[in-house]
Design goal:
Blueprint: E1 54-57, E2 63-67, H1 74-80, H2 85-92, E3 102-104, H3 110-116, E4 136-140, E5 148-154, E6 169-172, E7 178-182, H4 189-196, H5 200-207, E8 220-222, E9 229-231
Antiparallel strand pairs: 1-2, 2-3, 4-5, 5-9, 6-7, 7-8
Helix pairs in contact: 1-2
């Protein structure tokens, strides 16, 4: 007779989830002590790594657009203006600074910074190829003996909002379509074209001349084509 005790059943296999090691989240970079008594976009003054000039300010005197200087860094610019460095990068959609270009110190000023850097139509919608969509006109004549150029219009102006170089008032009709624009002090044709998304050629149909007219505060510029024929010179 076998009196050996039976072997205990094997212990159940327990599967454990493998936890991948992750890098620790870096602690936020502390702002300078001077920022404790200042608000975001207060200018604490030039310093190494942030030696550029303030290009634009808002009505409260807070910096909105900054001119990048040689050897500037995001870290030092953020410290100078009491801003978060990561947010400053994100708001400008760049990872590298270029001297003599401009960056926004708040999201609302991104288009102004792009315009100051020389980019055309920064606030206008773009095509799938990232080309700005603007109202334009091509001029054509039937043949060499024709004495008149006729216009072929593509697109319509749109108002992207007041900006440097185009801060005047716009008038619309009952349907909300643009009618005209009243020039303000310090306006420029470049600023007006950028604001309303129309090019140099479309401007001809508004002014009736290929020359660039001198602007005066109070001038009223139509925003619908008026001159669709021009003499062949």
């Amino acid at each position: 007779m076998n009196t050996a005790e039976p072997s205990p059943p094997p212990a159940p296999t327990v599967e454990t989830e493998t936890v991948e090691e992750t890098d620790p989240v870096p602690a936020p970079v502390p702002l300078p002590e001077a920022c404790a008594s200042s608000q975001a976009r207060d200018d604490l003054g030039p310093r190494s790594g942030a030696n550029g000039d303030v290009y634009e300010e808002d009505a409260n005197g807070l910096a909105t657009v900054y001119a990048v200087a040689y050897n500037d860094t995001f870290h030092d610019i953020a410290a100078r203006f009491c801003l978060d460095e990561d947010e400053l990068r994100t708001d400008n959609h760049i990872d590298e600074l270029i001297a003599d270009e401009y960056i926004a110190l708040q999201p609302e000023s991104y288009d102004d910074a792009r315009r100051a850097s020389g980019y055309n139509f920064p606030a206008c919608p773009v095509s799938m190829n990232d080309n700005p969509l603007v109202a334009s006109i091509s001029w054509w004549a039937d043949d060499e003996s024709d004495e008149t150029y006729r216009a072929s219009v593509q697109g319509t102006p749109r108002d992207t909002g007041a900006a440097r170089g185009a801060t005047g008032d716009v008038r619309t009709d009952a349907a909300g379509d643009l009618v005209d624009y009243t020039v303000a002090a310090n306006d420029t044709w470049r600023g007006i074209r950028d604001r309303f998304c129309f090019d140099y050629y479309f401007m001809w149909s508004l002014t009736g001349t290929a020359e660039t007219p001198v602007l005066h505060p109070g001038d009223v510029i139509p925003l619908k084509p008026r001159f669709l024929e021009l003499p062949v010179e």
